[in-house]
Amino acid sequence: MSAFRFGPGNPVQTYVSHAFPEQAIDTGDAVINYATVGSPDTPALLLIPGQTESWWGYEQAMDLLGDHFQAFAVDPRGQGRSSRTPGRYTLDNFGNDMVRFIAVAIKRPVIVSELSSGGVIAAWLSAYAMPGTVRGAHYEDPPLFASELSPSCGHSIRQTIGPVFALMSKYLGDQWSVGDWAGMIEAAKIELPDWLSKFVEPLFGSDGEIPQRVKEYDPEWARAFWEGSVYASCDHARMHASVKCPVLYTHHFRNVDESRGSLLGAASDLQAKYVCELISGAGQQIDYRSFPRMPHSMHGPDPKLFAQLLIEFEANLKRKHQRG
Question: Is the domain defined by 22-155+236-323 classed in CATH 3.30.390.50?
Answer without folding.
Answer: no
